[in-house]
Amino acid sequence: MWNVLLSFSGLVALIQLLFLPFFPESPPYLLLQKGDKAGCMKAMKQLWGEGNYHTEFDDMMKEKAVTKGTKIMNVLEVLKEPSVYPQLSTMLLLLLSLQLCGLKIFRTANLRESTIPYVSLGVAISELASVTFCSSIIDRFGRRVLLWGGYLLMALILVLLETSLLLSDQFLWMRYCSVIFIFLFIIAYGIGP
């Protein structure tokens, strides 16, 4: 019944995809990244209701003033920073442990046991690539666009994955399509949600 569970996460993603356009951007993102003061106040009122949010707005303005001279680091600069090594180690350990979760899907796709570890390694590389790529484009496009696009891609890929798994007994090459769809799903998840 794993395919029902996988479909359920697709349903949740579809619901989020439908409602996401009705939510405003994050107020700190609007103020700190875009410099849109009016948009920030409008988003705070839309998210939190009517009220006086000058204290929160002033806190964000102070944060903006503090970070004004701070250089935004790219991915390689962050990786060279020794202060992030504990967090990076924890994240890598978590990513590596998640690789064991996909073994059932790969067995259902009727892949040979000897190829499953290599496919799991490909999943890890896909996760790492998507996280790296997302961190470099999030400031350009914003969270809303990445979330919306990510959920849309995930829903489409889940439909294609389910179809390829259903047809994998009839067509041998569909097994490999299933693996490709799993890679694409992980990349879409890493870039979006």
TrEMBL record:
Taxonomy, superkingdom: Eukaryota
Membrane spanning residue stretches: 118-138, 144-161, 173-192
Gene3D superfamilies cross-referenced by the UniProt entry: MFS general substrate transporter like domains
Principal location listed in the UniProt entry: membrane
PROSITE patterns hit by this protein: MFS
Extent of the signal sequence: 1-17
Subcellular location: Membrane
Domain Major facilitator superfamily (MFS) profile residue range list: 1-193
Mode of membrane association: Multi-pass membrane protein
Keyword Transmembrane: yes
Record has Lyase as a keyword: no
Molecular function via GO: D-glucose transmembrane transporter activity
GO biological process: D-glucose import; dehydroascorbic acid transport
Gene Ontology CC terms, in alphabetical order: plasma membrane
Protein name from the UniProt record: Solute carrier family 2, facilitated glucose transporter member 9
Keyword field: Membrane, Signal, Sugar transport, Transmembrane, Transmembrane helix, Transport
SUPFAM superfamilies the UniProt entry points to: MFS general substrate transporter (SSF103473)
Alphabetized InterPro entries for the sequence: GLUT, MFS_dom, MFS_sugar_transport-like, MFS_trans_sf
